[in-house]
Design a protein that fits this description.
By secondary structure, the chain is α+β, with helices and mostly antiparallel strands. The chain contains 15 helices and 41 strands. The strands form eight sheets. The chain has a 17-stranded antiparallel beta sheet that branches. A four-stranded mixed beta sheet has the order 8-7-10-9, covered by helices on one side. The relative contact order is 0.05.
């Protein structure tokens, strides 16, 4: 027995070793051990999929080992020669990104994707050359001219037809649609062999009319321009056939002609035999039996000979809805199904037809069809009624309790299903939830639900794995649907994770989460240009860099120049996830600013903790500012604070709540922010209070978007002891667009420099029109009260027009013009243009 036991033990060990192959190759030791474990548990296809997902491939495999090689990761993608299309647009079109694995066909796919993008946007002569060593890819573009069309001319033998269309980029798809229409018209006149002979492109000239939905940036397109052409397509009719239909019964030959034309392809004998079968099926569905169809072609004449028996000459079906006769719903499709004895299909078609007509609560009470040799008679009775309330709900045989009341009609059942799905998604991994049956005012659901243990989280970047573990998982955790959705939502919501992939691989009652294709770095260049009514300009240029894979490091640099301000700002920041709901931020800001009669030099180190609870975010922080204010012109007003060194301690406390669907330009949603910031100086204690509410609402069944904004801001303490850079000013592209930068606010009575106030209320209403998803244009109205005391406030009002173009991952562009037709600032106006480009 002992010997037998030892044999069994060694057999188990040997079998385990046998089925778990050794992994070799360029692979980290931690992943090597995990891959050896998973190679024996996953199927060959799933294991290969997992390797590929994480950027590896199998170079060699035998019974004992698997040699794995790391796919080269694309480190740089460089574009050259693309004047009209941004790098970011071509990057999206290419289907790849930095950090993606490099495969054998990567260069080919990039070239084909970019060529297709150019041709679909009117650059029909574009040539693309792609080269790379697996890590660095170079894409050289010769765009050629961009072609637009506003007219297509079709020449059929000697007949010329000109088709006017709204101006759009030239594409083969647009031409092919018009060609197909012309060939269909010829087919209806029995020209079955028409063909396109050639296509000529006639240049009409350069015109600067461009469609609103043009995805190419409008300003760049206006600079380069385009060529308007007229495609001329020459089509040969071919031979005209005659159609001769012979039958021995009373039937409308027009319907047979239409069916024949719609299904005729060629005169090939195999196509003709197939067409005979289709026409036979069509006749049987129309009430014939024993149908025989013979199609022959002689000297450009097509003979269709049809023999059939027992054609139904009489069709008399009455449809009653709540005892009211309604024959309009018995259309040709329903008639054909009844004639061909497809009663189940006829009922289903009628039910769909009733729903499309707005009948949500109905039942087919009577379906009585009487068929004889030459007639079909009968009646169908439909009753609409108030649906019964669902009295009992069962999920996998167990009673499910809900506080809501649901009725037995499709929309309520669907809402109930969503509630059950949401309820169970917190407890298990859902792979299916379906209605099993409905009987006696009870509804039964079948739920496929498991609780797989998470055996590992794999990624091509350890930093991401560490963040996900800290934020979402405890030891011995299980995967649930809601947790999977939370992780995916977290990765997607991060502004630099646009191409993230998340997948789970099941092994019995365990699962592996794999994360890949995070966009590691993002760069943005932005600019703001302003010009107001008294010939004063402002210009701000900036650069941002963000790196999610290295603890969320950011770098910001901006330079600003206006009539009353020159400034340089440098900011460095880092983020670290220390708990599943807590992120810590460390930052330092360096600022040098000349404004009006002041020169500011400031250095501010800051530490902030962010606590996230669903849609609620709480910020608690501490910052210390070293501020030097120097007076550059003479004024006795506030003289005691003009030249001063400050050490300022800020303790910000901020609370933000936003709905999940809150996002500019898309969807409905709202945003609420409340903050209190005590500010301690050597001589004074100030409290800055802020509140902001913003809501976006897409108006139902219309392309209009309504945006409402309200803000409240107040500084406590003696004004003559508040550092001047903390005082509140208005004017610029963010608040009060009809005024120059920092134009509104209390002014120095001697130098007329804007100092600012202690209190502000601000509101804006914007009604935008969305012709396409990423474009909004519309009027706005702004109203502000500002001063030192809420009882004594100055008023500013303006209105204007704003255009916003914003595409995620590409950038944004906006223009606004504001005008103040109201006293006391009547006539003030300003123009602002903002842009940002991601790369």
């Amino acid at each position: 027995m002992r010997v037998l036991s030892l044999v069994l033990i060694f057999s188990v060990i040997f079998a385990t070793k046998l089925f778990s192959k050794e992994i070799k190759g360029e692979i980290p030791s931690d992943l090597k051990l995990r891959f050896e474990e998973y190679s024996s548990k996953l199927t060959s296809e799933k294991f290969t999929e997992l390797l590929s997902f994480l950027g590896y491939y199998i170079n060699y495999e035998d019974d004992n080992e698997i040699v794995v090689q790391k796919s080269k990761l694309i480190r740089s993608i460089n574009f050259k020669g693309n004047f009209s299309i941004l790098n970011s647009q071509l990057l999206l079109a290419s289907g790849i990104n930095i950090g993606d694995p490099f495969y054998i066909d990567t260069l080919y796919k990039i070239r084909k994707n970019i060529e297709a993008f150019y041709k679909n946007n009117g650059f029909i002569d574009a040539e693309i050359k792609v080269d790379g060593d697996g890590e660095n890819i170079k894409i050289v573009v010769d765009e050629g001219l961009r072609y637009y069309i506003d007219e297509i001319e079709i020449v059929i033998d000697e007949d010329v037809k000109s088709i006017k269309i709204p101006i759009k980029p030239y594409t083969e798809e647009t031409i092919n649609k018009e060609v197909e229409k012309a060939k269909e018209l010829l087919k209806n006149n029995y020209y079955f062999n028409s063909k396109v002979l050639r296509q000529d492109l006639i240049i009409k000239g350069i015109r600067r009319i461009y469609p609103l939905d043009d995805p190419i940036p409008l300003l760049i397109t206006l600079i380069k321009g385009g060529v308007v052409i007229k495609p001329v397509i020459y089509i040969s009719k071919g031979e005209q056939y005659k159609l001769n239909i012979k039958n021995d019964f009373d039937f409308d030959n027009m319907s047979i002609k239409k069916f024949f034309i719609d299904h005729f392809n060629t005169t090939d004998k195999f196509d003709i035999r197939e067409l005979e079968l289709k026409l036979t099926e069509y006749l049987e569905a129309s009430g014939f039996i024993n149908s025989e169809v013979d199609i022959t072609i002689e000297d450009r004449e097509i003979f269709i000979k049809i023999d059939a028996d027992n054609y139904v000459r009489s069709f008399d079906i009455n449809l009653f809805i709540n005892n009211q006769k309604n024959s309009d719903l018995i259309d040709s499709n329903l008639k054909s199904l009844i004639l061909s004895c497809q009663d189940d299909e006829a009922k289903k078609y009628l039910e769909d037809k009733l729903r499309s007509e707005g009948y949500e609560e109905f039942a087919i009470k009577d379906y009585n069809i009487i068929r004889s040799q030459n007639s079909v008679k009968g009646r169908i009775v439909v009753e609409t009624k108030t649906p019964k309330t669902i009295k009992a709900i069962f999920v996998n045989g167990k009673r499910y309790e809900t506080k809501k009341i649901y009725k037995l009609y499709p929309q309520d059942i669907d809402n109930l299903r969503k509630e059950i799905y949401q309820s169970y998604s917190n407890n298990c991994w859902i792979t299916g939830l379906n209605v099993e049956k409905i009987e006696n005012e009870s509804i039964f659901f079948t739920l496929n639900c498991s609780t797989p243990h998470i055996s590992g989280i794999l990624s091509n970047t350890y930093e991401v794995v560490n963040k996900i573990k800290k934020r979402f998982f405890n030891d011995n955790d299980t995967l649930t649907t809601s947790k999977f959705e939370e992780i995916y939502d977290y990765l997607l919501r991060n502004k630099n994770s646009e191409k993230v992939s998340l997948q789970q691989f099941n092994i019995d009652n365990e699962t592996i989460l794999a994360i890949n294709r995070l966009k590691g770095k993002e760069n943005r260049i932005y600019g703001i240009f302003g010009y107001d009514s008294i010939d004063r300009f402002s210009l701000e240029l900036g650069y941002n860099r963000f790196d999610i894979l290295n603890s969320g490091r950011t770098l910001s640099l901006s330079v600003k120049k206006s009539y009353n301000e020159t400034s340089l700002l440098l900011s460095l920041a880092g983020q670290k996830t220390i708990h599943k709901i807590v992120d810590d931020y460390l930052a330092i800001n360096l600022k040098d600013r000349d404004e009006n009669d002041f020169e500011f030099k400031e250095a501010t180190p800051t530490a902030i903790s962010k606590i996230t609870l669903d849609n609620l975010q709480l910020y608690v922080g501490l910052s210390l500012s070293y501020l030097d204010i120097y007076k550059t012109s003479f004024s006795k007003y506030y003289a005691d604070i003009y030249e001063k060194d400050y050490k300022i301690l800020n303790v910000p406390l901020k609370l933000i709540y936003s709905s999940k669907d809150f996002e500019s330009l898309s969807g409905d949603g709202y945003f609420i922010s409340i903050s209190e910031t005590p500010i301690f100086t050597k001589d004074n204690t100030i409290v800055e209070s802020r509140g902001k509410f913003e809501v976006f609402k897409l108006l139902p069944k219309s392309p209009f978007l309504l945006k409402l904004t309200a803000e409240l801001q107040h500084l406590s303490g003696d004004k003559d002891k508040i550092p001047v850079n903390y005082l509140i000013v208005l004017g610029g592209p963010q608040r009060m667009k009809a005024y120059g930068y920092r134009e509104l606010g209390f002014k120095d009575p001697i130098t007329n420099a804007t100092l600012g106030d202690k209190s502000l209320t601000y509101s804006q209403i914007f009604l935008g029109y969305k012709p396409i998803d990423f474009v909004v244009i519309g009027p706005f109205f702004e109203y502000a009260l500002y001063g030192d005391d809420f009882n004594k406030m100055s008023i500013a009002k303006d209105l204007g027009l704003e255009l916003i173009i914003s595409q995620k991952g590409v950038g944004f562009f906006s223009m606004s013009y504001g005008y103040a037709p109201f006293s006391p600032h009547r006539g003030s106006n300003a123009f602002y243009m903002n842009f940002g480009v991601n790369f």
